[in-house]
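User: Please fill in residues for this 289-position structure.
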């Protein structure tokens, strides 16, 4: 009698099997073969979560390996239980990322904050769609949800924008021609100089393409200085009955005019004295005669 083959078992060699003439059962002894079970650990999306675990045992024996703990993930089977089989001994444990809420703070290349923080919810290990910041372009690498931090810095650089500037007066009337400039996000416009006007508006900060108006006030026009025409009126001098002796002004430094006048007066006095003495002498002579 040839023993029946049972998967996963081997007939014990050297057994003598005799076929009975009645319904008496026939015992045939088998030995369980060695079996191998491999447990694979993978992430929900893709990729290996941990090294595969291989265990060995006998056919139909039970096994129960414990799944490794991976931070930020949950395994669909904490313990894999089963029996060693002659076929199909591979098992897979899938890890799903836990949900986290992250705060993203956009920053420029110099580390300055750009706009307000942004909260994003995602699962561990998943790539996150970087939030759009108007006027800026993300220049960093792919960002995935992490488990070690709740704030992720994102680096953005300002983009260039085309802006049409139209100067206007306080009444909204255009002054001169509009012109186009290129400005980066966050930069202030350079206010153009308009002859005869002073800029009195507010300098806008640019965040995108568009048009802006800049308000100017006309400078006051200076009045021309005109010489007043003065009409000379003839001066009428009325004669004064009382004689006025004209005094010649002396020179401020030398006093020559005053000295000259004194000299003339001295000579005149001397002559008058001489003539007086001469007259007296003649009168005395006549009396003596």
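Assistant: Residues filled in for all 289 positions:
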């Amino acid at each position: 009698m040839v023993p029946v083959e049972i998967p996963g078992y081997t007939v014990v060699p050297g057994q003598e099997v005799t076929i009975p003439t009645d319904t008496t059962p026939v015992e045939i002894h088998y030995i369980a073969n060695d079996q191998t079970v491999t447990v694979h650990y993978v992430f929900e999306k893709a990729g290996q979560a941990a090294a595969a675990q291989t265990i060995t045992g006998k056919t139909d024996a039970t096994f129960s390996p414990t799944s490794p703990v991976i931070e930020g993930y949950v395994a669909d089977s904490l313990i894999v239980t089963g029996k060693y089989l002659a076929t199909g001994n591979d098992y897979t444990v899938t890890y799903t990322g836990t949900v986290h809420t992250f705060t993203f703070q956009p920053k420029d290349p110099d580390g300055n904050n750009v706009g307000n923080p942004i909260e994003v919810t995602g699962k561990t290990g998943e790539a996150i769609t970087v939030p759009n910041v108007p006027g800026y372009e993300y220049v960093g690498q792919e960002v995935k949800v992490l488990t070690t931090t709740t704030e992720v810095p994102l680096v953005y650089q300002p983009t260039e924008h085309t802006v049409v500037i139209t100067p206007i007066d306080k009444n909204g009337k255009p002054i001169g021609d509009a012109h186009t400039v290129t400005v980066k996000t966050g930069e202030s416009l350079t206010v153009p100089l308009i002859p005869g006007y002073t800029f009195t508006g507010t300098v806008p900060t640019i965040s995108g393409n568009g048009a802006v108006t800049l308000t100017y006030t006309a400078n006051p026009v200076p009045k021309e200085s005109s010489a007043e025409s003065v009409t000379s009126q003839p001066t009428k001098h009325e004669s004064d009955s009382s004689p006025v002796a004209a005094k010649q002004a002396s020179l401020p430094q030398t006093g020559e005019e005053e000295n000259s006048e004194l000299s003339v007066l001295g000579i005149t006095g001397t002559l008058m004295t001489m003539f007086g003495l001469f007259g007296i002498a003649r009168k005395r002579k006549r009396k003596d005669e």
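For context: The CA atoms of residues 40 and 52 lie 5 Å apart.
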